[in-house]
Amino acid sequence: MTTEAELLVQGKNEELWQRCCGFIDLSLEDCMSIQRRLLMEQLELLKRCKLGKSIMRGAEPRTVEEFRRQVPLTTYADYEPFLLTKNERALPQKPMLWQHTSGRSGEYPFKWVPVTARQFKELQALLFACLAFSCCQQKGEIAYKRKDKFLYALAPPPYTTGSLIHAAPHELFDFLPPVKAAEGMSFEDRVQLGFKLALSEGLDLFFALSSVLVAIGERFSQRNRRIDIKPLLGNPKALSRLLKGLMKSKLARRPILPKDIWRLKGLVSTGSDGSVFREKVKEMWGRYPLDVYGGTEGIIMATQTWDYQGMTFIPHLNFLEFIPQEESLKSRADPFYQPSTLLLDEVKPGERYELVITNFLGGPLIRYKLGDMIKITSLRNEQLNIDIPQMVFHSRVDDMIDIAGFTRLTERVIWQAIENSGVAYKEWTVRKEVREKPILHLYLELRENGYVTEEQVAESVHHELKRLDAPYADLEVFLGLRPLEVTLLPENAFQGYMSRQQAAGADLAHLKPPHINPSDSIIDCLVNGTGKIPVTSKQKRQPETIHSK
Amino acid sequence: MNIWAVIPLISFSTFAVLVVVVLQQAQRRANKIFALFLLASGVWSFTSFMLVRDPSSPHLIFWNVMVIAAIPWVAVCYYHFVRAYNNKPGGIGLYIGYALVLAVLALGLGGYIVKSAYFIDGFLHHDIGPWPYIIGGILFPFLLAAMLMLVQRYRSSTDPTDRNRTMYLIAGSGIAMVITYVNPLTPALAGLPTDHLGNLANALIIAYAIQRYQLLNIRLVARRGLTYLIAITCLIGIYAGAILLGQRFIPDQPLYSILLLASGLALLLALLARPLRHSIQEGVDRFFYRETYEYRQTLLSFSSKMGNIINLNELASEMLPAVTKALNITQAKLLFEDINSGDFTTQFAYPEAEGESSEEPRFNVDNPIVVWLEKEASPLDLKQIDSIPELKGLWQAEKESLAAFNLEILCPIKSGGGLIGILALGKKQRGNIYSHEDIELVVNIASQASILIENAQLYAQATIRANTDGLTGLYNHRHFHERLEQEIARGSRFGSMFSLIMLDIDLFKAYNDIYGHLAGDDVLRRTGRYIESSIRSIDLAFRYGGEEFTIILPETRIDDAYRVAERIRKTIESKTSSRAMPITASLGIASWPTDGVMKEEIIARADAALYQAKQAGRNRTCLSSDVVKPETPNIGTELEARPRALSIIYALAATVDAKDHYTYGHSRKVSDYSVAMAEALGMPQDRIATIRAASLLHDIGKVGIPDSILSKEGPLTDEEWEPVRAHPKLGVEILRHVIDLVNCLPAILHHHEHYDGKGYPSGLKGDSIPIEGRILAIADAYDAMTSPRPYRKQLSSQQALNELKRCAGTQFDPELVDIFCRIIESTPSRRLEIK
After folding, report:
1. Which residue has the higher pLDDT, B517 or B368?
2. Each residue of B146-178: pLDDT tens digit?
3. Record: contact B392-A25, CB cut-off 8 A
4. Check: CATH 3.10.450.540 for B3-219?
């Protein structure tokens, strides 16, 4: 079979689009047919392996309905005996590689999940699709070319985003820096070297966490006044690119931004904050980031298309089930409750669901609760005529803060409120504290130039929260409750925390404190610079490196 | 005119035609640049023609400069084309290349390159100093880079089609380079325009690759273009020849009159050639299609030639070889929907698969490929299955199995919008690929064949329906006789032999009585399937009637037939559910012509063998040679003929009687009454024996009733009635594994049914209650009434008879009650003897 890279080289763009992006043209009926068929294939594989027999408790479902009736919903704990020990003989198919994400509080540092060769092949095609969507203006347009300069600011393997870069065609694009050369480099060094190369070689495609995109953009604008061009005198290409950027910024009478230096063809982002930073990224980089929803367990589950609105589900990597929010809450309250699920053709627009996946193509996970709450925005994309339901990431199931039963605030909403408030912050974390009344306690570290009081921050963020979340506004109206309280953290509180974690040998995923519901010891460390923090414990699950949450 | 001018003239004409056809589809970048390369080549040929045409021309230096400038232009354009073919942008090299071309042109026109130019004996002599080496040296990197790019692409590509195309480009550019560089360095050729031959060869190779391998995705370019090219080249050749001949033979004539004469001749020939256009086209087609030409013609007029075919066999035997040869492919298959499963299965193949077990392509009804073919009108290229989103649902195993069949194209055959068949085509011979024309031909065939296939399918379906047994799906009794006659005729003609198996399901009537006719039908269906799965594709299975089946085994000796029969028998036996009565079959085998030459003889011999198998205890296979004549005309009843069976019955009856001392002797008395009734009804001996055994054992199920209930004096509660009502079923459960007693089971199961349907366990009514059960019910009731019981007093014989009469029509069969009363009343003074 001709590979995607070969199709691009041969100029067979039509076939390349059809192979990689063609799933967006499927009817919902076709999607369901693919879902059912691939599930049946997966069940055949599961019936024959130890893991399948164990998880399905001996059931041998022959239809989708039997599968949903007979097989229980699962969490990672069900797979620990097989996956933590990397017991490949127990799996439905021999894996090609193993990838991991952060593990569970103090019990194990990583959740290891295998990837089969077939999954990897589909991942490669989907990577082409995401790049195509991020570069194109219309259906069928493949705007990237061979030897395009590709910068990536993602975690290294065996994190999932590392697998993504491994799946990318190395011979096709000029990776900045080359993937092999980057092995062993720290994240910071790799990104710095990448930008150095991009300055002289140019930059066409950028794949990064959305928070990294913003951080880099901000670093540019902060350096505006102290740009030293002397080191670039020996590099005319880099110098001309920088001078061109400076001129553009001067003409626009604002600090220099990445978009002044590079005109990106495509920008793909992952991470939970994609929608929060959407406008900021566009302002800095000149285009919206294409948001991709994926994770270690499900690889890629949905992606935005070139209208940068809702994300389209990918029907051929996982069997998708949806637990309605109410059912999900019930099951959280009663661990023995088996909530009912809906299929992709049964979801309703505007509703929130907890996502449940069963890997196709020999993957190990069966009716696996990802712990993600997603929202169905519409049943189809009218603008682009896509017949598959559209979604956005809503929250982690366990990352919501309930205030007085009136509202359930998610990380995304709080983040958006902080962003909109205009407070110049470095980092934040928030948790519910119950004293006489429930308190939404926000711990915020300001930038160096941020001179505001805690009251001022609380006022602005409270105002934005009311604007973004109507039930939150009702708290004040009906209960006279104003739950937000702000504590400004000392300078470098987060950096200090991270340094301590790093020194203690914590993994990349555990370096930063969580945004939602940090433990007492984390708060103690942030506020007082003290407190003993277990290397991987006392943290709720971190946003996964690829998850768009 | 210089005769050597013909070479660049022909070359120029060729390039001119190619430029026109390529420009017609120049949307793609590579096509445009290919057209530019052809244009540059055409200019090179034209300037060369102008240079060589007239040795005395005063413009020799000018044309020589143009030729020298055109050569680097061609080389740079070729480099440009190879970059575009590899989807690479122009790059700095191209700017340098085109700048070089302009520089050469400017220097040339400025008089710095060609100092002088003249012809001696048709050979060009010119003073151009070191320029050939300078230009050649500068151009070499371009040609080398183009060649390296092609070699690199060839090595890195995993697509065989792409490798094929690239190989043609490598060959073409190699020839062009060698000839272009060798020509000026060869003294015999230096000064002659033979270097054009290399470039012409390159262009023609590319044109061929376009036609054969869709190099540039230009439809029909080369073939159609070549037709015109040949026509124009011929005309120019004739024109030039006429001028040369005119100059030689009529040298005194002025040039204009010779030109006029030549033009007139060329025009005349052109007009005459018009009717020959068809022949030229045919010649070109034959050149391209070679041995496949005739088959293509056959297929193009497919429907008119095969309009009368209404038989799928005949259609396939005409169509598949023609398709295979016309397209020069490895195989062709026709798949049609299987009536029973709905799957598309291979029903015809060319060449036919070797061996019995060769697997053929088959698509389940829900296979995404079938769904796709139903929706689409165009053929499916199997190389593309990974690129079609609707086919994402294909299983890995399905893809692997498909790949193993070495198919390349699946063309839907549709009628009325529905998929009625699939034409599956193998790979092209020698690694070639399907051209657009091939695909058009395939679509054309599929379209024409659809009507014929639909008619043939309807005819076939009607024939199948007429010859098929609706229940089992096997052939029916009528068709059995037809095929047997055909087989005998074939055997007589070719001296071959065959065997006939007759199969009868053992104790099928009992099964029907116990489990009902629906369950019985299911047994027949399953038996049909087991037979089909146990025989070869050339063997024929029939439902002969009732529970009897026959199998004709062509070219099979009786001992081989025995092995087949045993396989069938064991399959049937092994598939019996452990929860139901065992299903077994007896089989008899006869062989033609050993056991008789007439149809009736062979059937009778197989039937006799089957009877022998039954007599020998069922569930076995007997050959016609096993049949022995019975020593006595009537061997009596089966059960009684076997002491083992009788001993079982008496032992079991004793068990029942021992259970309840009140019922002591009850079984034996009921047996006597029942036998008396059966005899009065004139029933055959074997059925009387069955009734006797059933009567003795009718209460065997009471072993499951607690003694407390059996001996209870008062009326029974609902809960206590439960085990009592269950005893007939329990009796059947106990006895169903004793094959000798299976015939007794209906009577035992139904001896508590009421004539009005209110009895138990099945609530059967009237004549649907087996007669053995109805007899047993009366005998049982009479003996119960006339015997003492803990819960009531013993009735007199007359009282009991009166009670029977009162319940006739509701509980008991009224006719049988009459008979029973007559029997008892006719023997008032003596008790029926207990035998």
Report:
1. B368
2. 889 888 888 777 666 677 778 888 888 888 778
3. no
4. no
